[in-house]
TrEMBL record, chain A:
<feature type="transmembrane region" description="Helical">
    <location>
        <begin position="271"/>
        <end position="293"/>
    </location>
</feature>
<feature type="transmembrane region" description="Helical">
    <location>
        <begin position="27"/>
        <end position="47"/>
    </location>
</feature>
<keyword id="KW-0472">Membrane</keyword>
<dbReference type="Pfam" id="PF00361">
    <property type="entry name" value="Proton_antipo_M"/>
</dbReference>
<feature type="transmembrane region" description="Helical">
    <location>
        <begin position="333"/>
        <end position="358"/>
    </location>
</feature>
<keyword id="KW-0812">Transmembrane</keyword>
<dbReference type="InterPro" id="IPR001750">
    <property type="entry name" value="ND/Mrp_TM"/>
</dbReference>
<feature type="transmembrane region" description="Helical">
    <location>
        <begin position="104"/>
        <end position="122"/>
    </location>
</feature>
<comment type="similarity">
    <text>Belongs to the complex I subunit 4 family.</text>
</comment>
Automatic annotation (TrEMBL), chain B:
<keyword id="KW-0472">Membrane</keyword>
<feature type="transmembrane region" description="Helical">
    <location>
        <begin position="355"/>
        <end position="376"/>
    </location>
</feature>
<feature type="transmembrane region" description="Helical">
    <location>
        <begin position="232"/>
        <end position="251"/>
    </location>
</feature>
<feature type="transmembrane region" description="Helical">
    <location>
        <begin position="316"/>
        <end position="335"/>
    </location>
</feature>
<feature type="transmembrane region" description="Helical">
    <location>
        <begin position="263"/>
        <end position="281"/>
    </location>
</feature>
<feature type="transmembrane region" description="Helical">
    <location>
        <begin position="104"/>
        <end position="122"/>
    </location>
</feature>
<feature type="transmembrane region" description="Helical">
    <location>
        <begin position="71"/>
        <end position="92"/>
    </location>
</feature>
<feature type="transmembrane region" description="Helical">
    <location>
        <begin position="478"/>
        <end position="499"/>
    </location>
</feature>
<dbReference type="Pfam" id="PF00361">
    <property type="entry name" value="Proton_antipo_M"/>
</dbReference>
Length: 492, 620
């Protein structure tokens, strides 16, 4: 069942790739249908999953027995929300108009391939499987940027590829380190989490965490490994940016809660302060640099650094055991996972909106716009919602995430959290400023409002952010048991 | 009865959200929908005040979302919904069909609805949510006319300033969880001692920011850029009142810390004093009223700090009626006479006598004249201050005198006959000269309420009120009522004489006070500009150092590769080539003897044997 969810898009991608001479409409219908079916299947998985049971919908097959690596997939409260987010975002991209650059059939097939890869990564319970999906996501996104991007797309794509690929090599080193430390040797994540192979700590454990942390930090990205992100986003097509920010970045943060914290608890606790500090710097640095941007898409890209910083701060704070009870640490981890979902929905929406701007005027420079609210009320309305959601306005998912992160984090990492709170003030300032420059004031040149396809892609994302913001229980009921498990694993 | 307490805020919030999302299509239906939703909310609020419902729903782990209407909340919800209803009735006349009425009525309902959640929330997450949504809707309302940059700038200033304060509540929430293990408001005073101070500090900062107390006051001056009905609602029962409400609600927490009570009391008293002086210097009626709002909220904040909750709440209610009335009158004048400068409002009272009479009633109440509402409620506050600190009492009494002065100044000017009010409408939203029925309707009602709430001076009433909101009775002492009534009367009469003679403040004081002490400029210089400078410096650093470093590293790898190619690959290849060449040479040499001629092979064999024989002989 879970494997069907993972590989259905890949099967569709192969069919799309194999059958030549399909009209654009047929490709579009097929793409949207497959993505929609996958969303429905994920919903079915969600309904069939009992939050208390730990790992559900599990499949464990032998793959490379010589290194005890298997096709082991399953879902729990950490992965299920991200699977759902992935399916939803890919559906939004299927609905959203394709960029110029032709070869729509290949474009659709590539996105379906990426969807399978992303779903597979979040479902993977084996390090080698995780690594394979991790690298394939980089390959897929490279082609999305290099072929359908704009501006200096070749350079941006190459930078993205090499930088994140380097990160993945660090991950591989860490995975091998974990494999060798385990007794018996294994790449199975569940087994590794249970074994806690490097419990004695020491230099090896520190080095493994360093490699793991660096690899994940590049993908997340945190300061100072973030500079591939702005060019990649700026030059990627809108849907590519939405997937890059919404799904691919989460592979980094997901790795922290799925791999680093459960498998290296002692080392995680020892270096928790460094992780908190990296998170804090990302929060403030990302927000401040975003404030200085003139390019709307670059600005949103830097706010991603800020938003990912909250996650890193939270998972770091969950490792600080000296003060605060388990309740606060669980709240921080729950907030971190909520933030992954929330950021995916909201920033995905913002990047699609940036795509609309580019489609009409061929520029992201905020100075080139003004007074759009008069000509494009729908676009202005949705952007206002997305901007306020992104600056953490209550009523949207971002608040639920950040409130939990701050409230949980303050008990353990008091000073860092108190400083990180400033981030929401800076993002408020930058979003209001950007919104005023692009949409308010006077402007007389014509600007076409959202098409049906564009609003059908963007609006549902924001509606979901709103639903989570007001009725978060359905999401938190799934996440909370999993974050309790993570916190218990870290504390052992 | 949980349905009642949920539907109380849900009615305005859902209607408001629907109207805002409808956009221009909803313009026709908006006034009817808006006013009916406000009326329904008022009905629900009155019902809730009697039934006292409460409800709890799971929200985030360890922090459910709780709503309850207790005595204090009952007073608040009725005040909020009543003022909202009055202001929305007025707004029907204010916004013509060409305006975005659906957006306006929708936002006003969202604004009021979030205030209703704020005053009924029993847990911090829900309170903070409503608190922030209220700030965001205030942004959208102040910047309602979004084509004009100065209005949007004002909206941004308001949102960012209040949000800066709101950060305090985020920290307070974290400290509450650490200190009490829950986020229930009632539990906050029981927090363990270290965290209790953090909670109190966070709450105080957030409340002072929202209530535009010093040093945050400047945002309220800018907030005047919004439509008049927005000012009428924002300055009376919502937004600024939320800060005062929070401090009054959490008075036990302030008392439990030891320092927060006096700090808050002094902040309120100093704001009342300084902003009272600022109000006197304002040449613009709306700015005068805005400064007066800060000053009057200062009395409520003072009450919270001095444990005079009953008086503080009574003052909040009386002020809500008074100030909404005064702003609505200012709106009428702005729309019909096109003027908000006091100079240009000369004689406005004579032109529209009934409106002028309503203004006078509100103004006299604001002046603290007996037997009107604010006279009684303010003295209740002063009485509790007297019990705490006599220096504070003197400051507050002087502040009260100032309110008599600025109120009397405004009243005197609008009733002076000399000037002609021009009909130009520089800042008018519409130019119809007549005061429509919708606009006029709420004025007399609010005027009567502003007057009759003076019954609070009757001890039995004050006691009943204290019992209602569940706080110790703080009825004003008789001698204080008399003293302040006499002082206010003297100040009013003195001001009338002074204003009629045309006496002005010394020019330097006038300039400083009229600019609200330059607080906004100071905030720009000290906070906004450095933040932008830092942002730009970091952005340059990001491009030139961090990103450049990555590029340099990549280049270095590329260069190293080239170097390896030149310095290592070529020499190694040359060695390989040389070895191959040597073997080729050897091969060529080895081929030489292979002549294929038998005699040559014999000769070679003979020579070889000779050599072998020589070696054998030598070695043996």
């Amino acid at each position: 069942m879970l494997s069907l969810v993972i590989f259905l898009p890949l099967a569709a991608a192969l069919i799309l790739g194999a059958v030549p001479r399909m009209t654009g409409t047929v490709v579009r219908v097929a793409w949207v249908t497959v993505s929609a079916v996958d969303v429905a299947l994920v919903v079915w998985l969600w309904i069939g999953y009992d939050a208390g049971e730990g790992i559900g919908h599990e499949t464990d097959l032998q793959w490379i027995p010589s290194v005890d690596s298997g096709y082991h997939v399953g879902v729990d409260g950490l992965s299920l929300p991200l699977l759902a987010l992935t399916a939803v975002l890919f559906l939004a991209c299927a609905v959203y108009p394709a960029p110029e650059g032709g070869r729509f059939r290949v474009y659709a097939a590539l996105f379906l391939f990426l969807e399978s890869v992303s779903l597979g990564l979040f479902a993977a319970l084996d390090l080698i499987l995780f690594f394979v999906f991790f690298d394939l996501s980089i390959v897929g996104m490279y082609f999305v940027i290099a072929v359908w991007g704009h501006g200096e797309r070749g350079r941006a794509a190459l930078k993205f590829f090499l930088y994140t690929f380097l990160g993945s090599l660090a991950l591989l080193v860490a995975f091998i380190g974990l494999f060798l430390a385990a007794d018996p040797h294994t790449f199975d994540m569940v087994e590794l989490s249970r074994q806690n192979p490097l419990a004695r700590g020491g230099t090896t454990a520190g080095l493994v965490l360093l490699a793991l942390g660096t690899g994940l930090a590049v993908k997340t990205p945190t300061v100072p490994f973030h500079t591939w992100l702005p060019p990649a986003h700026t030059d990627a097509p809108a849907a590519g940016s939405a997937i890059l920010a919404g799904v691919l970045l989460k592979m980094g943060t997901y790795g922290f809660v799925r791999i680093a914290m459960p498998m290296l608890p002692d080392t995680w606790r020892r270096y928790a302060w460094i992780i908190v500090l990296v998170g804090l710097v990302s929060v403030l640095y990302g927000a401040l640099v975003a404030l200085a941007q003139e390019n709307f898409k670059r600005m949103v890209a830097y706010t991603s650094v800020n938003h990912m910083g909250y996650i890193v701060l939270a998972v770091g704070a969950a490792g600080v055991l000296a003060r605060g009870d388990a309740q606060a640490r669980e709240l921080a981890v729950t907030g971190a996972v909520t933030q992954m979902v929330s950021h995916g929905l909201i920033t995905g929406g913002l990047f699609l909106i940036a795509g609309v701007l580019y489609d009409r005027r061929r520029t992201y420079e905020m100075g080139e716009y003004g007074g759009l609210a008069g000509q494009a009320p729908m676009l202005s309305g949705l952007t206002a919602v997305a901007a306020f959601a992104s600056l953490g306005l209550p009523g949207f998912s971002g608040f639920i995430a950040e409130f939990q992160i701050f409230t949980g984090g303050l008990a353990t990492a008091t000073v860092a959290t108190a400083l990180a709170v400033l981030g929401i003030l800076i993002t408020a300032g930058l979003f209001l400023r950007a919104y005023q420059r692009i949409f308010l004031g006077t402007g007389d040149t014509a600007f076409a409002d959202l098409t049906v396809a564009e609003s059908a892609a963007i609006a549902p994302l924001l509606v979901m952010a709103l639903i989570i913001g007001i009725f978060p229980r359905f999401l938190l009921d799934v996440i909370e048991p999993a974050s309790r498990t993570v916190v218990e694993l870290v504390a052992r | 009865m949980s349905a009642l307490v949920w539907s109380l805020p849900a009615v305005p919030l859902v209607t408001g959200a629907a109207l805002v999302s409808a956009g221009r299509r909803g313009d026709r239906a908006a006034p009817v929908a808006g006013v009916s939703a406000a009326a329904l909310s008022l009905g629900l609020a009155i019902a809730a005040a009697f039934v006292r419902p409460s409800a709890m729903a799971p929200f985030i782990a360890g922090a459910p979302a709780g709503l309850a209407v207790d005595g204090l909340s009952a007073v608040m919800v009725v005040t909020v919904t009543a003022v909202t209803f009055a202001v929305l009735v007025y707004s029907v006349g204010e916004f013509g069909p060409e305006e975005a009425r659906a957006r306006f009525f929708g936002l006003m309902l969202l604004f009021a609805g979030s205030m209703l959640v704020t005053v009924t929330a029993t847990t911090l997450p829900l309170l903070l949510m409503a608190w922030e949504v209220m700030g965001a809707t205030s942004y959208a309302l102040i910047g309602f006319w979004w084509r004009e940059p100065r209005r949007v700038d004002a909206a941004t200033t308001a949102f960012l300033t209040t949000r800066a304060g709101d950060l305090g509540l985020y920290i307070a929430a974290g400290a509450a969880l650490a200190g009490t293990g829950t986020l229930v408001l009632d539990q906050l005073p029981q927090a363990s001692s270290g965290w209790r101070h953090v909670i109190a500090a966070g709450v105080v900062v957030a409340a002072l920011g929202k209530s535009a107390q010093l040093p945050f006051s400047f945002w309220l001056s800018r907030a005047m850029e919004g439509p008049s009905p927005v000012s009428a609602l924002l300055h009376s029962a919502t937004m600024v009142a939320a800060g005062a409400y929070l401090l009054l609600r959490l008075q036990p927490l302030l008392a439990a810390t030891g320092w927060a009570g006096p700090l808050v009391a002094w902040a309120g008293a100093v704001t009342a004093l300084v902003l009272g002086a600022i109000a006197i210097a304002q040449p613009d009626l709306k700015q005068l009223l805005a400064a007066s709002t800060c000053a009057q909220i200062g009395f409520m904040v003072l009450a919270a700090g001095a444990a005079g909750v009953g008086g503080g709440v009574a003052h909040l209610v009386g002020h809500a009626a008074t100030k909404s009335l005064l702003f609505l009158v200012a709106g009428v004048w702005l729309a019909t006479l096109g003027a908000k400068d006091l100079e240009r409002l000369r004689g406005a009272g004579h032109r529209l006598p009934r409106v002028g009479a309503a203004f006078t009633a509100g103004g006299l109440a604001l002046a603290g004249l007996a037997p009107l509402s604010l006279w009684a409620t303010k003295d209740a506050v002063l009485t509790s201050v007297w019990a705490e600190d006599s220096a504070l009492y003197v400051v507050a009494l002087v502040a009260a005198l100032l309110s008599a002065v600025y109120s009397a100044k405004a009243i005197t000017i609008v009733w002076r006959r000399s000037g002609d009010v021009e009909e130009t409408s520089r800042d008018a939203t519409e130019t119809s000269g007549a005061v429509g029925g919708w606009r006029a309707a709420p004025l007399p009602v609010l005027a009567v309420i502003a007057a009759v709430l003076g019954v609070y001076a009757v001890p039995a009433v004050a006691e009943a009120f204290a019992e209602l909101i569940g706080s110790p009775a703080t009825e004003p002492a008789g001698w204080q009522l008399l003293l302040s009534a006499v002082l206010a009367l003297a100040a009013v009469l003195g001001t009338i004489t002074v204003v009629r003679r045309g006496v002005r403040l010394p020019s330097r004081a006038q300039v400083t006070l009229a600019s609200w002490l330059g607080l906004e400029r100071a905030a720009h210089l000290l906070l906004v500009r450095p933040a932008f400078a830092l942002a730009h410096a970091l952005a340059r650093f990001d491009d030139r150092v961090v990103d450049r470093g990555v590029d340099i590293a990549a280049d270095a790898v590329h260069k190293a590769a080239r170097l390896a190619d030149l310095r290592a690959e070529h020499p190694i290849d040359a060695v390989v080539g040389a070895v191959a060449g040597a073997f080729r040479g050897l091969g060529r040499l080895a081929r030489r003897p292979q002549t294929g001629q038998l005699h040559a092979y014999y000769a070679q064999a003979a020579a070889l044997f000779a050599v072998l024989a020589v070696i054998l002989v030598l070695v043996r």
